[in-house]
Design a protein that fits this description.
heterotrimer; A alpha+beta (about 150); B alpha/beta (about 575); C alpha/beta (about 425); A: about 150 residues; alpha+beta; 7 helices; about 45% helix; about 10% strand; B: about 575 residues; alpha/beta; Ubiquitin-like (UB roll); Rossmann fold; 3 domains; four-stranded parallel sheet
């Protein structure tokens, strides 16, 4: 779907900028907004590029930073921490061969910290796309990664 | 008259209008409360947290900028807890600030340094998180040094609310939050107009004009160069503020003397060039009206405005007058006619202009502004602030200087040239000449009061006998946008529109002294009208030296040579190359 | 206890995706009742219930509704704050995912009472499932005529729109949330004016949390005084507790005010106490108390008197093999990351706190660091622009009080 169509659908008003950015980010194979896309959205909404970039730099779920197809968000807040989230981080880093904040060279995975995802009752928990996984142990990580790969 | 209320600040009884804040009440009574994000012409931001005070009966300290004064309030501005909080706030700001004060361009007028000094702070007890970030200095007008930024948000507000551009924004969040533009870009890569309003409200040296003082010193000290200078109208009624005078003091004579002292060979007046602009521009309007050219015609003397229309609405450029600005007309004449008269090569004449403006620096650097196609017509532009700095560097006792007079032939100007410095002034000056061109009759009442004043959008109807023409005057880019929208919707039934980029016109320019507020602007404007009234000749086309210039060199308005030297072309600059 | 269950009564008994299940348990009866009634009577009932906001600030809901009602503007908004972002809290998610119509009914009634015609639900971007369930529920409600034009034959029209948050904790602050719906960066506004006077698009706005609004159908059907008969003197009704951390049984539990923390952890959480070292109340913005204080009862005003608060109902239990400073640093890092960066104390001060805590983690702190920590903790909570900064150092302040010896033990001699 093209950007202008999304803008029409959401309503061509500056106050819809955030929701438009979210939708446009979704259509990308990689979960970020490119500079030309930012420019189109800015022009269409009559906002400055700076304004759009300020939104992208403030909200963590929309970004102009290159991210992989699967953004793995790991919660390490207290409830997850006291249930072993550090080991989950280590396991993901080991399995994917990247550090937190990085993206695998094949562009498939990005590792990120996330703010609490409201899964404290099934801590430690992670979020990939719109799916959540809880009660994790390091042993369960490999299966999650394989599942993502299979979905290609 | 609003209801008055009484409150007590530091044991002093203070009477103030209802609805005012505690900070305003304290300032009125000369009670010191430090502040940084507060600016009298802006909205209340309350983000620096420096103006905290204690109110009896309140459980917490409050910011005086955002708290209304209430009857019988008892306020303390220097209690122990206030002092402690104030100290921490400043130390925290310093823990993330490049405080190399002695080599900072704002050393003598930095608002942060002032409050830090007053609180007697020598160092921050906190760990410094300061890391040096790159400086944006790739454009000819403005330097952005975020290492100095204290995140007060004044620049963002003026860019958004006054100019309607929103070039500067708060980027990122938490301690990474900074005032910025899209990552990896410079101001020159995006649609900044270089109006410099951000620099005129910045409390520190985070945004400043590009410093061209050294360039001027080098020329002055170069024996090969004949260095001349022109002074814009707005400068003479504002620079006094930088030496402690009240706003609106006309110090033309002292400016001239100080420039001679600094070593300029000849000192000229931009007002003269403004008279020349009026003759060319009125003739252009006359022709467009008579021959059915593109109307409305819009003024072209404000370079911030030109940057705006070239970058945002290039499809409307045919409305813009082809006349160069007075600064550039002066440069073109200096590097041709004057050079011939002087029998000096143009490249050995160094032309400096003293301008209230940062965009003028960009204008001078444009490719179109080279009469010989190689050398710039204007070699250096100094803002009012830079000029004052130069005077201070040279230890000149500005206030006690004798008055001097501009040199001839470019030192003589009419009242019309003078009011170029304020909103409505170009319009009024042009009408004085245009009326006589169009009707062939002498204009009796030359004061066009409808176009005067600080109202953002002004209109007037001019009776030419056989027909009436409508004109409009706007200032600030936010108001310019209104006119643009009217043009796009075919609702602008005007013959002539004056647009000035900055609020109040050039007297409120981005290169002006730091206290650029509404009341100050009004005083500067009043001073220019006083100068106009005091002039014997108040119509540009009656300036005898202009008449002489046409006779000896330019022949007549819009002659081939006039077109070559005094007119220019514009470009569609909407799409900047991707970086 | 069963008679004291209000919000969770039907959970697990009804299918959240089936509006008929909700209707069978008296769903939308409260709405039918109010549409024939004077809005002022609804506000009167809510005032009588003494319901207080469950988002953390605990403001009287009826009084808030009355202020919005009294505003003369024709356009008014209701906003449901579903931006449950404080770590350790997941009760709003629980309500939205298990009984969405209860919330929707509450919103429509609140809207009718204050004279609004449109509501927004501001839901965290991370709550994908809750959003989908709500969207489905809104569709069903519209199909059945509980939303849209001429609701159940009356001349009342109402719309509810969902707005997805995009990952910013500070947007849970009411004015930041409003900025966010307006398409801006979520930085808080100066108060006053309060949202009840100038809120969304500068119109009077009633802004309440999911749990608060979910209580409204019960109050309307059973009467304010019935609701007010539950709880304590200062805190009426029930509260949802999100219990997590080192507990055997974590989850959301509905308890009447006055219930002790001991009961929640021990009985509801089926956890023994011998290994517990710290209990964090409310989430990172709340205090950390030692096990000795476990008899503390959940009561808004009584807790306030001791400088304590339960926030929006989280209880996080932490075992004794965790380093307190590590936990504190986690709390502080959270605020460091979520600070909007607007005001100096929060932007610059919080990371200084984090630095000093690191010194304690690594046994490198000295006496002056402790003094500075204390001064800064007080300073940030006293001078920050909004609630985020004001609450950011609560956990540090409480440990300075209750776990003082831990600090002193780690100071370099």
């Amino acid at each position: 779907m093209d950007i202008k169509k999304i803008i029409e659908e959401k309503g061509k008003k500056p106050e819809n900028a955030i929701q438009i950015l979210k939708e446009v980010q979704k259509i990308n194979n990689y979960k970020y907004l490119s500079s030309p896309q930012i420019k189109i959205i800015a022009d269409e909404l009559g906002l400055s590029e700076s304004k759009i970039v300020s939104l992208l730099s403030f909200y963590t779920l929309i970004t102009e930073k290159y991210r992989g197809k699967y953004v793995i968000q790991i919660c390490t807040n207290v409830s997850c921490y006291v249930n072993g989230s550090n080991n989950i981080v280590k396991e993901f880093e080991k399995e994917l061969g990247i550090k937190m904040g990085e993206t695998t060279s094949d562009g498939l995975f990005t590792l990120e910290y996330t703010s609490c995802i409201g899964c404290c009752n099934i801590a430690p928990a992670i979020r990939i796309g719109n799916k959540k996984f809880g009660e994790l142990t390091p042993q369960k990580i490999q299966a999650i990664i394989s599942k993502c790969r299979e979905n290609l | 008259m609003n209801k008055m209320i009484e409150l007590i600040i530091d044991d002093e009884k203070i009477i103030i209008e209802e609805g005012k804040t505690i900070l305003e009440a304290a300032r009125k009574a000369n009670i010191y409360i430090p502040s940084l994000c507060y600016h009298p012409s802006q909205t209340i931001k309350a983000n620096c947290r420096l103006c905290l005070i204690e109110i009896e009966g309140y459980s917490k300290l409050v910011t005086s900028c955002s708290t209304k004064a209430e009857p019988n309030m008892v306020v303390r501005t220097n209690s122990d807890s206030v002092k402690k909080a104030r100290k921490i706030t400043l130390e925290l700001l310093l823990s993330n600030h490049d405080f190399n004060c002695s080599i900072c361009s704002r050393e003598d007028n930095c608002e942060l340094k002032k409050v830090v000094d007053k609180e007697g702070i020598n160092d921050s007890r906190f760990l410094s998180f300061f890391t040096k970030k790159p400086i944006d200095n790739t454009n000819p007008s403005i330097i952005r040094d975020i290492n100095k930024c204290i995140k007060c948000g004044r620049c963002i507000e003026v860019c958004k609310n006054v100019q309607g551009l929103n070039i500067l924004e708060e980027m990122s969040r938490s301690h990474k939050m900074m005032v910025g533009i899209p990552r990896g870009k410079y101001l020159s890569d995006i649609l900044c107009t270089f109006c410099g309003q951000c620099s005129s409200v910045c409390p520190v040296a985070a945004i400043t004009e590009k410093d061209d003082i050294n360039k001027v010193w080098l020329a002055i000290n170069n024996p090969v160069k004949h260095v001349i200078v022109q002074v814009a109208p707005a400068v003479r009624v504002s620079i006094g503020e930088m030496f402690g005078l009240e706003a609106g003091h006309n110090v033309t004579g002292k400016i001239v003397t100080s420039l001679r002292r600094l070593g300029f060979n000849n000192v000229y007046d931009t007002n003269f060039a403004a008279d020349l602009t009026i003759v060319e521009e009125s003739y252009e309007l006359f022709k467009r009206v008579k021959e059915g050219g593109v109307l409305p015609m819009i003024t072209s003397c404000s370079p911030g405005w030109i940057n705006y229309i070239e970058q945002y609405h290039p499809e409307l450029l045919e409305h813009v007058s082809s006349c160069k600005s007075p600064q550039q007309m002066f440069g073109a004449i200096a590097k041709t006619y004057y050079s011939e008269q002087l029998k000096r090569k143009p490249e050995n004449i160094f032309v400096v202009s003293i301008m209230p403006c940062t965009a003028k620096k960009y204008e001078a650097s444009r490719e179109e502004m080279k009469s010989d196609g190689v050398n710039p017509d204007i070699d250096a532009v100094l803002t009012t602030r830079e000029f004052a700095k130069m005077i201070k560097q040279s230890q000149i006792d500005f206030l006690n200087l004798e008055d001097g007079n501009f040199d001839d032939p470019f030192g003589f100007s009419t009242g019309a040239g003078t009011i170029f410095g304020n909103t409505g002034g170009v319009m009024e000056a042009a009408l004085r000449t245009f009326y006589e061109m169009a009707t062939g009759k002498a204009l009796a009442n030359i004061d066009f009061k409808d176009v005067r004043g600080l109202k953002g959008f002004k209109e007037a109807v001019i009776d030419l006998g056989d027909k009436k023409v409508k004109v409009a005057v706007v200032h600030s880019l936010l108001n310019a946008k209104k006119i643009i929208n009217m043009l796009k919707e075919n609702r602008a039934d005007y013959a002539f529109i004056e647009v000035m980029c900055c609020e109040g016109g050039c007297i409120g320019g981005g290169g002006q002294p730091y206290n650029n507020q509404v009341d100050v602007k009004q005083k500067r404007i009043d001073a220019l009208y006083h100068l106009d009234e005091a002039k014997e000749i108040r119509k540009s086309h009656q300036n005898p030296f202009i008449e002489k210039l046409y006779k000896e060199f330019l022949i007549e308005p819009h002659s081939d040579i006039a077109k070559k030297l005094l007119h220019t072309t514009y470009n569609d600059r909407k799409n900047k190359p991707e970086v | 206890m069963e008679e004291n269950i209000i919000l969770t009564k039907h959970i697990n008994k009804i299918n959240p995706m089936a509006i008929d299940d909700y209707i069978k348990v008296n769903g939308y009866e409260a709405l039918k009742k109010v549409l024939k009634d004077d809005p002022l009577n609804i506000i009167k009932e809510i005032k009588e219930s003494a319901l207080r906001g469950r988002g953390g600030a605990a403001f009287n809901t009826g009084i808030k509704m009355e202020s919005v009602y009294n505003e003369k503007e024709t356009d008014k908004y209701v906003i449901c704050n579903a931006d449950e972002g404080e770590p350790g809290n997941f009760k709003d998610r629980y309500l939205m995912e298990n009984n969405p119509h209860q919330l929707i009914e509450g919103i429509i009634i609140a809207g009718y009472a204050v004279g609004s015609t449109k509501a927004h639900i501001y839901i965290r971007g991370e709550y994908d499932k809750s959003k989908n369930i709500l969207m489905h529920a809104l569709k069903e409600a519209k199909e059945r005529g509980f939303l849209g034009s001429n609701i159940i034959g009356s001349n009342f029209n109402y719309e509810i729109e969902i707005f997805s948050g995009m990952g910013s904790y500070v947007c849970g602050e009411e004015t930041a949330l409003i900025e966010s719906i307006e398409g801006k960066v979520g930085r808080p506004r100066i108060k006053p004016p309060f949202p009840t006077v100038k809120g969304l698009f500068d119109k009077p706005t009633l802004l309440n949390n999911v749990e608060t609004l979910s209580n409204i159908p019960y109050i309307v059907l059973n009467g304010g005084s019935k609701y007010a008969s539950i709880g304590t003197e200062s805190s009426k009704g029930t509260m949802l507790i999100s219990l997590s951390g080192n507990v055997k049984r974590s989850g959301v539990f509905e308890v009447p005010f006055g219930t002790s923390i001991k009961y929640i952890i021990g009985v509801l959480g089926e956890t023994t106490f011998e290994k517990i070292k710290m209990i964090q109340l409310g989430g990172p913005s709340g205090p950390i108390i030692p096990l000795e204080m476990v008899d503390l009862k959940i009561d808004i005003d009584a807790m306030r008197k001791s400088n304590l608060s339960i926030g929006s109902g989280a209880i996080i239990v932490i075992d004794n093999h965790f380093n307190m400073f590590e936990i504190l640093r986690k709390n502080i890092r959270f605020f460091e990351h979520e600070s909007c960066g607007k005001c100096t104390p929060c932007r610059e001060g919080i990371r200084q706190i984090r630095y000093i805590l690191s010194l304690f983690v690594n046994n490198l702190a000295n006496q002056s660091d402790l003094a500075m920590l204390e001064e800064l903790t007080h300073y940030i909570s006293e001078t920050s622009f909004c609630g985020l900064g004001q609450a950011a150092t609560n956990s540090v302040a409480s440990t300075l009080k209750y776990f003082r010896s831990e600090y002193e033990m780690r100071i370099k001699k």
